[in-house]
Specification:
This protein has 283 residues and is of the alpha/beta class. The chain is built from 10 helices and 12 strands. The strands form 2 sheets. Strands 2-1-3-5-6-4 form a 6-stranded mixed β-sheet. Strands 9-8-7-10-11-12 form a 6-stranded parallel β-sheet, with helices on both faces. The two termini are 37 Å apart. The protein binds NADP nicotinamide-adenine-dinucleotide phosphate.
Amino acid sequence: MKRVYSLGIIGHPVGHTLSPVLHKTAAEHNGIELDYKPYDVSPDELRGFMEGLRGGGIDGLNVTVPLKVAVMDFMDELSAAARGIGAVNTIINKEGKLVGDNTDEYGFITSMAENAGEDMACKKVFLYGAGGAARAICGAIDNIGGVDLVIANRTESKAEKLAARLGNRGASVEAIGFDSDKLVDSIRSADIIINATSIGMKGNTEERLPGVEYISKGQLVVDIVYRPLETPLLKQAGARGARTLDGLWMLIHQGARSFKLWTGAGFPIDLAREKLLLELNNN
Ligand code: NAP
């Protein structure tokens, strides 16, 4: 009898997640039988849910906001990526043994290499944000080494904490607040500017990232927010002549890595993007 993979995503809320479309596309492409469900699990319900998970029935899960750090307490094993980033976005259930991994770093670095032709080595990077996604991006930057990094966050202390986690490897790391007088110069001199805050996301479009008006031609501007696909940052950066990279690529590549961890199968990257663009246009 053909195996049916039982997979899903936990988070709170999970109503608008694109993950079911992403993984169903890959399963169909590979001729894999898949049952992929979103599970809305509040932080208070997490312990009970994770105990049930050990009992079997679900082969693996994606994890999204706000549970990526909290699920770590329930893992029997953590990958080096999950330990380094300090968060789990993928759980593999090996017959009751729960393995926590993190594919966001891979997703980011692969989208930079394959979709923007950029390896970041020895570049000047300006990063907005110091939350979970920023931690994954900093993990990637740390592994590359030689990147001069400025982390700017609304809450400066969180940027400082994140900067202190980095190994640095001969390059500089600076943490600043959104109101810092170093912000404008740091943006002007950057090769790559990345938004890893939720500013620009549907429902958070009132706020504006500071200093965007100093972006110029020759810079690469990346927004990991993908709903809407063309965020206010990418729109402004494009109008100012900068190259841009949208967040859907990172989402697809992190999903591809999770799918591989669960099933061992490859991922139809371009087909997945087509399906996700349709889904974004319809919702
Ligand atoms: P998070 O851990 O909650 O961090 C949120 C970040 O956004 C923090 O730096 C926070 O600053 C900042 N922020 C939120 N609202 C703000 C506001 N009004 N003004 C200024 N700063 C604000 O969230 P996350 O997991 O890092 O996710 C961040 C974004 O990345 C989300 O939109 C998420 O959908 C997206 N994401 C995309 C991918 C992908 O594959 N493309 C993967 C992961 C995440 P403070 O520290 O000051 O609160």
